[in-house]
Amino acid sequence: MVSSVVALLVSHDGGRWLPTVIDGVRAQRAPLAAVLAVDTGSKDDSADLLEQAFDEVVLAPGSTSFPAAVELGLERVRERGQLPEWIWILHDDATPDPGALEALLAAAAADPGADVLGPKLREWPSLRRLLELGVTITGTGRRETGLERGEYDQGQHDEVREVLAVNSAGMLVRRTVLEQLGGFDPQLPIFGNDIDFGWRAAAAGHRTLIVPDAIVFHAEAAHRGVRRTPLTGRHTHYQERRAALYTLLANARARALPWLVVRLAFGTVLRMIGFLLVRSVGEALDDLAALLNLYAHPGEIRAARRARQDRAVAEEHARSLLAPWWLPYRHGLDFLGDLAAAATNQAADVAERRRAAAAEHAPASTVARPRQSEEDELFADDSGLVARFLTNPIALLLTLTVVVALVAARAAFGSLAGGGLSPTPAGVGDWWGLQTETWHPLGTGTAVPAPPYVFPMALLATVLGGSPLAAVSAVFLFAVPLGMWGAWRFLRVVGRLVVVTGAPRWVLLWGSVSWALVPVVCGAWGDGWLGLVAVATVLPWLAHAALGFADPEGVRRWRAAWRVGLLLALGCAFAPVLWVLAAALGLVVVSSAALVVRGAVRDRSVWGPPAAAIGLVPLLLAPWWIPAIQRGAAEGLLLDVGRLPVPTADTLDLLSGRLDGLGAPWWIGVVLAVLAVLALVPRATRIPVLVCWIVALVTAVVAALLGLVSFSLAAATAPAGLGVLVVVLQGCFLVAAVLGAAGFATDLRSWRRAVAGVLGVAAAVVPLGGIVWWFGSDAAVTDGIDTDIPVYMVQSSEEGPEHGILVVRGTVEDGLTYTVRRGDGMTVGEDEIVTLTAEDHDFTDDVQALVSRPSPEVVDQLAAAGIEYVVLPTPADGDVAGVLDSASGLVQASAEERTTRAWQIDRPLDGSQLDGPTSWLRVVLLVVQGVAVVVVLVLCLPTVNRRRSTP
């Protein structure tokens, strides 16, 4: 018996596909009772094509949804008095194979219990790639086909089986079932209505089969964005995601609904993070908009659930057809793998293009030489990895250097405090408090903002379990290994840019180890200068990112701008003077480019990326820069971070890469400077070596200008921070020496090769001498800081800021100074705030009155300022102690040292004077900073597009 079938074809602006679709419908081997077409306001020739091909065409406005179009077709079928057994639904971008309907009807005849049948969907126009063989949905709303991306049809899935749903393109459904279920849901105008319909059918006890012998070729025009309609708008992903969430919420079991609501909210946040990681900001916002749209209109979900409630007689059967619970987690792992692969492929692509550019511009004699094989690279493929590692002296020496560095840095495993480093706070919440507060209860209260390095340190401490000590220890412990890794990557790329074979690996080993030891031999590591240690670690990574400015493609130059800007902001957070140097270098580089290549400045993609990178720093550090200037603390923009006094640097220090009175012997640094001078000899690499010397010259000029500046602070007079300039100069010398060595290696004249060998022996003094000195030096960063304050007072001060301790040092003859200790004392992040805070003259007058002519009113004012104890550390001045002994309102307190005197203020404590106004400007700047960091991170990341490509 032949079943009666009416084909229902829905069209909207499908003129490019309709001729083929019409031919496919006419070529069906199974008979059709009628073909009914519904055109929804097409602006092309779709309606004309349909009227020429078929007798019955229903014209509807462009706002007609797909469910409404199907309903219009059913009404016309009923009006004509036709009662077909089957309705065959077709899209205008889906052409059926001549045997598609025949195979569907054959499967229906073989299984009379089947009410919905669907064909195998293949991609059009490729015709071989599989799109769907039935679909289901995961607990997170993902449309699941069970196919691999780009999988070809080789008959591997050719078996008839029951599924949750089939695509509406080619769906064969019993007319009675379609009418009984109310057709497709009007709340799903274009996407997701097939899964919702299949779920409702399964819950009502109907069976849906996939018939692989029936083949339909589908262009997926709406999904791919090839065709936009009033229903999809410009945000196809929004409509798809809203449909998925609606389907889950409308069909889920009642007892699972509360958990599903929470899960989808958290899942949306995770999906947004994933989209941001692959720089798909629009899709992230579409996900959020879809969730908010549904959660803001709960009545829609309630109405949908009520409509489904009476028909749900087989919920367990429908649940068995859903995707497994673990599938979303597998997809998450796949995404992370794709992201890692994208980053790796992008890095390999950049390296390959740089090698190609180097080969294109290299001299013929150089190109003729055989290039170092990929199998001989340090980090090659995994085959024989262990064997190659054990037989590779470079790999062994690098590993040995890392082990030696970790052993030499063993002091970082303990508590670090001393020299330029204050103790770390008790918990990471203290750092987050400094970052977010607009008024700090330090000293007598201050609105000076927290230094910018507090933010990255707080993030690091949070990742490491909330321990600030672990964060500081990690910076000191891994500074050398991370610096060596970054220097190896940078020097390898630089070497390949100037010599096609690249710098010899022995030279790369020497250069990377020497650079990693710069913060050690200059004295910053041992004396606890956290900022210089951190910036020395970041600099080679920053330099590597800056190489992207030389990329021939403008798009890649702009992407390099975001990476450079982010790394430069990180470096400036630890060493603010770095921004001044970067601005000066940017000006010199752009000016030189304008002189060498006339007209280059007219191209915005030439000067724009470096300008954007430099301009990003004030934006990313705005919560510090703007309030610092506003609060009269602009000196912080030119000071090194850490405790006073900061180390200085004279001409010899700059040349030898040493901070004043710190670091390894000066002659080790002079050897490096001499090597940089001799690097000018090889002609092959003379130009890039001159570039290094130009950078060094600009750095020296900036250092000379800043050396003329000093700042009168409340506590002392401090010079401008030259530490980072010392580090940069060492980097310039080192890169020049590496390039010079590469030039000597390419010179075929034996005498120069002999000279290179002698210089290589001398160069070995730099890293070896640095390591030997490091092992034999005493690190001041482990000495701790003696407070001379009794323990019980310290414990009391930790109870709150109103339990402050006034510490008066010095003598009447030589002069007295005072400090105020609150909480757990001065910790990392607070030094710069207190240093840059202007003197509170009223409080100074109260202290002067206290030590000279104390009165009850003065004691009351100190108590109101949150002072509980007054301490004269050893050796206490007898005259001052006698005055305080006789002061009314002061009670003598015990002290651990005999020569230390202490008094307790016998007044009710009041810390209200420590409270200050909220700066809404800084609150806004913190929000702007957070948004800017996220945006820049997204712009820095590689792009991964998991959607199918447009045919």
From TrEMBL:
Keywords: Membrane, Transmembrane, Transmembrane helix. InterPro entries: Glycosyltransf_2, Nucleotide-diphossugar_trans. SUPFAM superfamilies: Nucleotide-diphospho-sugar transferases (SSF53448). The keyword Membrane applies. The chain crosses the membrane at residues 256-278, 394-413, 458-485, 497-517, 529-549, 584-601, 606-626, 664-682, 689-714, 720-742, 754-775, 920-941. This is Glycosyltransferase family 2 protein.
